Amino acid sequence: MTAPARYARWDGVGIPFRLVDAPLPEPGPGEVLVAVDLATVCGSDLHTTRGRRPSPVPGVLGHEQVGHVVATAPGPRHVDGTPVRAGDRIVWSVAASCGRCLRCRRGIPQKCTDLHKYGHAPLDEARPFTGGFATHCLLAPGTATVVVPDPVPDAVAAPASCATATVAAVLEAAGSPGPGERVLVTGAGMLGVTAAAMAARAGAEVVVADPHPDRRERALRFGAAAAVDADAVAAGDRFDVACELSGAPAAVRTCLDALDVGGVAVLAGSVSPGPQVGLDPERLVRGLHTVVGVHNYAPRHLAAAVAFLAAEHDRAPFAGLAAGPWALADLDAAVAAAGRPGAAPRQAVRP
């Protein structure tokens, strides 16, 4: 394959993206070449471009995307066990794992000791297609892939690779709350409203806390029974599950304080350095509380994310969560738009 393709090269904070043409590689053993149909600007992409999240420089950013398989080496299979075939419309995991190390064998492949993360890899100019902000992406062996049904719009499918699958992992860690259980979600961004929709659909009563009125209103459209100001969670209000998806230290404290007896707090928003949050060990012990951290996800969570979106995307306004689409040449503008107050949770980029 010698047809030229293009990627957006990131050279560091404050430097505009630069489009670079490169020949398409032939997939090697276990690899899959995908044409990117649409990618979305995730919060971690925004943090990287602002210098709040370390990332190799230069590099190709982007890890939320949907695309079609162009070519595949023999052997790769989707999460459901079916062979990967040219023409398959897929999303893929945020990382590739070896499947052999102790962490992979323990069921946490997202923390593989030989992890390859899309959108966070050093640029190899000989094989540069390692991120979503490009016309193509070369999937490494050990990447989880899931076929996306045709009715699911690109802008709905792309975030499955990060946001939606992460929420599936969060709710699994929380014990898959359902009927009769009360769930607190702090943060009404992309993860927060997705968590509200998933938990509400499972039958739980969901309360979302966020300081911004427009985000609270959006949470109600995604199934929250109530949406309150971040500091308005009543002191005596108790929840069976508390999901912290904002990363704000005060929200972590709110989740810990709001647990009922036997409650589970899942912390997934704290992905950047910040101040420590105190923990009352007596309350944790006497309350039989569980506190668990979730970062990224396992392949089954990506499959669960796609299944949920396929079933529910037209029952809640998921398509409205992404603005755009922008052309790849306008990636700087897309990233700037993602950082504006009141912006849609995602900006879509169509290579």
Automatic annotation (TrEMBL):
Keywords: Metal-binding, NAD, Oxidoreductase, Zinc. InterPro entries: ADH-like_C (IPR013149), ADH-like_N (IPR013154), ADH_phosphonate_catab-assoc (IPR017743), GroES-like_sf (IPR011032), NAD(P)-bd_dom_sf (IPR036291). Residues 191-310 form the Alcohol dehydrogenase-like C-terminal domain. The keyword Lipid metabolism does not apply. Its cofactor is Zn(2+). Its EC number is 1.1.1.1. Residues 28-149 form the Alcohol dehydrogenase-like N-terminal domain. SUPFAM superfamilies: GroES-like, NAD(P)-binding Rossmann-fold domains. Belongs to the zinc-containing alcohol dehydrogenase family. This is alcohol dehydrogenase.
